[in-house]
Each structure stands twice: as C-alpha cells, then as structure tokens.
Design a protein that fits this description.
Layout lengths: L1 E4 L1 H7 L2 H14 L2 E9 L6 E10 L4 E10 L5 E8 L5 E6 L1 H19 L6 E5 L5 H11 L4 E5 L3 H15 L3 E3 L3 H5 L4 E4 L18 E4 L12 H5 L1 E6 L2 H7 L1 H8 L9 E2 H5 L12 E5 L4 H18 L3 E3 L3
Parallel strand pairs: 1-6, 7-8, 7-10, 8-9, 10-11, 11-14, 12-13, 12-14
Antiparallel strand pairs: 1-15, 2-3, 3-4, 4-5, 5-6
Helix pairs in contact: 1-11, 2-3, 2-11, 3-4, 3-11, 4-5
Length: 318
C-alpha cells in the first residue's frame, strides 16, 4: 500500500539538512530526467498544468511531480513515488512544502560547493514564501554572520527578517535597495517573480557566489547580462531544463555573448568532474530551475523519515 503524506506531515518529516544530503546523494549517483512539460489551459481559461519526472536509481526510486494553476485558484502540488525494487507506488505526497525545501536545498548544495569557505554575509533579494528556505539552506552550509533582505514590500521584508531571526537564530536586517543589499555580500540569492533584472553585475564584489532561484520561465530574467558574464563559473541544476527555461542564460546566448559549452550541471560539481570555483576572486553563479530529480530525492528522504516517525495514512492502492 502507498503512504499518503499531507504538507504538514512533510514539514514534520523533512529538515533542511536531510534535504541537502538527499540531493547530494541523488546528484552523485546519476539520474534520468524528463524536463517540465506545460499543458496550456483550454480557450477561455487562464491556467497551466505542469508535469516533471525523474528516475534516481541510487536512491531506489522513480516518480513525478504534478501541479496545476488556474487563475483564481490555489496551486496544488503532488509527488508520486514509485519503487525500483517492486515497481509499486510507495507514496503520494502533498508537495508545496516539499518543493520549497528542495528548491532551497539545491541552492544549499551549490553554495557549499561554489561559495568561498569563509563566506558569511548573505543578501536575499525577495521575501516571498520561498525566501526563508533559501536562507535556511545557505545557513545549513555556511556560518552566516549577517543576512540582508530586500523586497518591493518593506513589511514583507521585515516579516522575513523577523522569521529568520526567530527560527534560525541569525542576524537579519531589512535594507532599502538591492544594490545596498549586494554591496560586499559573499552570497547573493535572488528569489523573486520579476520578469526584468533585479541584480546588476556592476554591484557584485570579487568572489561573490550567486544563487538565481526565482524564475523558470524563458522570458523572465533576474540577472542582467553583466551579472551573467562576470561569472567565471556557471552551474545549472540540469542543462536540458536550463536550455528551455533559464531566461538569464538564454538572453545572453541569444545576444551572442555566451555559449552553452562552459555551463556545467550541478551533478558534475557534486561528483568532482567539474570545479565549483577556481579562485578566491572568481564570481560564481548557480542557476536553479528546479528539476524532478530534486523532487524524487527529497520525497524519498521524506518517506523514510515519515515511516520512522509513524506519520501518514496508508492508501488501499498499489
């Protein structure tokens, strides 16, 4: 029988350290990936249906994430997890919380491999529901002395700073502009819904690591051309997905200023086939689209923890 886990139960079973470890295991062991497919709404309806799938043999699972958005409704995320041992359906998970944690965890893995070992000041551009998990993931791999948060809505930025301080025990403060937030920061994360750049290359200091995690739409950009071109190392969670969705890189390639050749997969850095950083002063960039490998890996770790904790409800399906 399959185990059903609600979002609340996922939250109880899944910690950030577990999620980061699960992604390391998945990327090191190899995977097969079906990039995100988007099914458009019927005429007269505003919405989109998304499906993405992966096989992660090293963790013993395969599965998919499915979610739908219709204007005026709530987005609902679900992961189906199948066993490579039996072929059976092992779990159905509500995946809103899971998706937030796994997106943060991917930035955590990248930060650990690409940021300078002494990096301790983080700037977060964006204060929406995913920002907390981006900060938590970086805090899981680096000892942060300061977190600077900026948002178009000052009250939202303050609420995030308060949450970071109370939940993570970090020194967090609101700053009035992205430029001020980025100045001298060791790690810069963009996690916005912006369609035009919110991070400019001219603001970056030597040695900065960037996590661009807010967009998976080819026509949207969080970074300007200079920010991309100043990066000596560009890593994506998967090039097949990035070639379809990564507006930051696609815009620069279209302008003839960059090719795909130097862009590497996060799995290559995790496995040691590629370096995440080659010098102290190098600017590094991780472009995160969010891929199904991450969903399957984190769902597998969540399932193991949930069974140990006695969480979930058994469904009469196989």
């Amino acid at each position: 029988m399959a185990l059903f886990l609600t979002d609340d139960e996922v939250g109880q079973a899944l910690g950030m350290e577990d999620a980061v470890a699960a992604l390391r295991e998945a990327f090191a062991g190899g995977y097969d990936l079906l990039p995100r497919w988007r099914g458009r709404a019927p005429e007269g309806t505003v919405g989109v249906y998304n499906v993405m799938a992966a096989s992660v043999p090293a963790m013993g699972y395969m599965g998919l994430k499915s979610y739908a958005w219709v204007k005026g409704g709530r987005v609902r995320f679900h992961v189906l997890l199948y066993s490579w041992t039996t072929g059976g359906l092992e779990a159905v998970l509500e995946a809103d919380r899971l998706g937030q944690v796994r997106t943060g965890a991917a930035s955590g893995v990248a930060t650990d491999l690409m940021a300078g070992p002494a990096a301790h000041v983080m700037a977060c551009i964006g204060a929406g529901h995913q920002a907390f998990y981006q900060i938590a993931a970086v805090a899981a791999v680096r000892k942060l002395s300061e977190v600077r948060i900026v948002s178009r809505r000052a009250e939202r930025a303050q609420a995030m700073a308060d949450r970071v301080a109370s939940s993570l025990g970090l020194s967090a403060r609101v700053v009035p502009s992205p430029q001020e937030a980025v100045a001298g920061a060791d790690i810069v994360t963009t996690i916005t819904s912006a369609s035009q750049p919110v991070l400019l290359g001219e603001w970056l200091s030597p040695g900065t690591h960037i996590n661009a995690a807010g967009s998976n739409v080819a026509t949207h950009r969080e970074l300007d051309e200079a920010a991309v071109l100043r990066a000596g190392r560009i890593v994506v969670d998967d090039r097949a997905e990035a070639a379809v969705e990564c507006g930051d890189i696609l815009a620069v390639i279209k302008a003839g200023r960059l090719a795909w050749d130097p862009v590497v997969n996060l799995a290559d850095v995790v496995s040691g086939r590629a370096l995440g950083r080659t010098s102290t002063d190098e600017i590094t960039l991780f472009e995160s689209q969010g891929i199904a490998v991450e969903d399957v890996a984190v769902a597998a770790r969540t399932l193991a923890n949930a069974r140990r904790l006695g969480l979930g409800k058994e469904l009469a399906i196989e």
